[in-house]
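[audit] Reproducing an earlier prediction to check determinism. Same input, same settings, fresh worker. If the tokens differ from the archived copy the diff job will pick it up downstream; this log only records the rerun itself.
[audit] input (340 residues):
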Amino acid sequence: MSNFRIALNFEDGVTRFITCGAQEKVLDAAFRQRINLPMDCSDGVCGTCKCKAESGTYDLGDDFIDEALTQDEAGQGLVLTCQMKPTSDCVISIPVPSTACKTGMAKFGGSVAAVRPFNDAAYELELAVAEDTPAFLPGQYVNIGVPGSGQHRSYSFSSHSGEQRMTFLIKHVPGGLMSGWLAEAQPGAALEMTGPLGSFYLRPVTRPLLFLAGGTGLAPFLAMLETLARQGCSQPVHMLYGVTRDEDLVMVDRLEAYAQRIPGFSFATCVAQADTAHPRQGYVTDHLEPQALHNGNVDVYLCGPPPMVDAVQKHFKAAGITPASFHYEKFSANVAAVPA
């Protein structure tokens, strides 16, 4: 019997993955794996287990009543997990916190395989992890404990899920807790992580994509691009990658490689500093070409510092553009990510 991978995204940002058999109901599969999803009757009568299927295909059968799930609700992707049988991998939004379902963030470890500095701009941290390390959705982040400090920092995965090597692009912050540790980190050093977390992740691609990255906000897009390269993409994908200084422009070679691997992927970079030698001076909003917005028929993903997120939102409003969907994540140095 085929097993499908089901991502359960809880209201508090926690994501847990379960396996579900082809003829198994999601509610039963979750319970079998010690996650108590909301339920009461389990017979398709009360509607207590109603959730939103963000992606994937499934069979709801006809053993539920209209009061529990109307045809209009089903058409909008709402499901009853007590009746839902997946026919593919799925992502399901659960409208309660993970703690209400007697689960929470997964905890796992990794060891330093490499720390690669990019001048004084950033580090790429590569970790070796076990084969059974929790999966994640491309774009999500994890909390990494800083050894000896009792504190953690939040970083987006820049690698593909399911590998035994996990990477992160981490901003170099002078005097920063994680930056100071990375500067002295030795191969084999152990790190503890909790997650994955976040509602900023790549949805099914049904229209053109616009990726807007600011600084080390490039990280989640590297995970997304790797996913697109592996699964294929028939839609155009354009990225604008903006930084403050020339030295902050890192991993452009990775983007060039993705331009070769992903048909329809293009990217441009820009630098904000006034005396830059870069051919495109200014902010991302200075280089948003109308054709990249597809008259609003575009899914926009944005990851960058709060001023960048605010500037992009104002730019869209001034231009009279309302994207079909707009997903963003703000981040600040030494502060946990705030998904939206």
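[audit] rerun output stored. Observation attached for the diff report: Residues 5 and 19 are 5 Å apart (CA to CA).
[audit] end
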